[in-house]
Design goal:
- By secondary structure, the protein is mostly helical.
- The protein has a domain of 207 residues: 3-Layer(aba) Sandwich (Rossmann fold), CATH 3.40.50.
- The chain is globular, with a radius of gyration of 21 Å.
Length: 405
């Protein structure tokens, strides 16, 4: 039997989780954040019973003493809480349900004085922009927004699509790397993110990470750095860019820390994190609004609705990994016992891989990319072990609704 070529360092054998609908082709977001050319896309793990890491992490929540965890949170906050009204923690976010919940509960339940920090979407949706305004105005927070050089952001986003078929890399790098830099500049020693990455099957992150952990530093030699799939120095030379143009996208450097000891914490370590309940909390307390229509590629109306490029990003994951937006949403809801696996399978069959044409024209115009070129890239990035052509139509070789029979 002919061995089919695999791309992106994916496992050649496709397996689906026995509890949710995710497959072993799902890359870890930690791998997608990396800048180095040699970084392989590590994928979600499966145990001997065929259950994915994310499902096992969800099961472990039932064994946690959440009362004790909250006591630990209060002790942590008491250590950093300001007495003079100065900012005592930094909450990065766009005003989506997660950041709205984080900032609100830290301020109004636990008496902190957070500064919210926004690395804005590449192209705001109407609903995303309104939710960001409501977060600040109804929720009641000070906010700093770091809007990157639009010319550079557009270039890097287009190159990310061309070279690694990853429309979201530019946003992800800024979202991860800007907050520590701003915390260091403003003398804020505590940064809060929301969910621990184990929620999605990534390697379980330590709840507390000091910025002195080398994982937060860029490589000492810029020759080892790749951005948008291009060597750093080549990117500068070919596109007439400077270090200043690209600095926002790189991790903080150790020299920028001076004598500070900034710590990163996940609120989901201390408080049981259920996305649907976080959504209801944000609606009630910060004026968060779901879209009146479902997102293309899934059945959900409130998850990742800030950026017009969100839908396109999930479509590229479908092309590269055989996993579309509905697979992610359904798996999460199965883990939280909101739907059954059987229901999830049918939802994936119905919605996964739907082409996101709602904002497609706007995005192609913004990126100065011909739609035909994007479709060519789709075919160039299909891994032969995942895709085959039947009657001139691309079909997945492995689908959860077939594998589950």
């Amino acid at each position: 039997m002919e061995k089919l070529v695999t791309k992106f360092g994916l496992p050649s054998e496709v397996k689906f989780c026995k509890k949710c609908v995710i497959s072993n082709q799902r890359p870890s977001s930690a791998a997608e954040h990396k800048h180095n050319k040699d970084s392989k896309k590590s994928t979600i793990g499966f145990d001997d019973l065929g259950v994915c890491d994310a499902c096992r992490a969800a099961e472990s929540k039932d064994k946690i003493d959440w009362v004790q965890r909250e006591k630990e949170l209060v002790q942590l906050l008491d250590k950093y809480r300001s007495k003079d009204g100065s900012y005592d923690c930094l909450v990065p976010g766009s005003g989506g349900k997660d950041s709205a919940y984080q900032a609100h509960i830290l301020k109004y339940k636990y008496g902190m004085n957070p500064l919210t920090l926004t690395w804005p979407p590449i192209m705001y949706t109407t609903y995303g922009y309104e939710n960001w305004k409501n977060w600040i105005e109804i929720g009641g927070f000070d906010n700093m927004t770091i809007k990157p050089n639009g010319k550079v952001q557009k270039l890097l986003t287009r190159l990310s699509i061309e070279n690694i078929f990853h429309p979201f890399q530019t946003f992800m790098l800024g979202q991860k790397n800007v907050a520590p830099k701003i915390a260091a500049k403003l003398g804020i020693n505590l940064v809060f993110y929301g969910e621990n990455e184990a929620e999605y099957g990534n390697p379980i992150a330590e709840n507390q990470s000091s910025l002195r952990d080398k994982a937060y530093f860029s490589a000492q030699n810029l020759n080892d750095i790749y951005l948008a799939g291009v060597p750093y120095q080549e990117l500068k030379q070919k596109h007439n860019l400077t270090d200043a143009d690209l600095k926002l996208y790189l991790p903080i450097e150790e020299k920028d820390l001076a004598n500070r000891d900034i710590n990163i914490h996940f609120l989901g370590y201390y408080l049981r994190w259920t996305p649907q309940e976080v959504f209801y909390y944000a609606v009630e307390n910060t004026g968060f609004k779901a879209r009146p229509f479902r997102s293309q590629g899934t059945y959900c109306k409130y998850h990742s609705i800030d950026d017009k490029i969100d839908d396109l990003h999930f479509y590229t994951t479908y092309i590269k990994f055989g996993i579309g937006r509905c697979s992610y949403d359904a798996s999460q809801e199965i883990r939280n016992n909101h739907i059954t696996r059987e229901e999830g399978v049918q939802l994936v069959k119905k919605f996964d891989g739907e082409f996101p044409d709602r904002y497609f024209g706007d995005l192609m115009e913004y990126l100065e990319m011909k739609p035909e070129r994007f479709m060519e890239l789709c075919d160039e990035n299909r891994s032969p072990h995942l895709w085959k052509k039947e009657n001139d139509k691309w079909m997945l070789r492995h689908a959860v609704w077939n594998e589950s029979k």
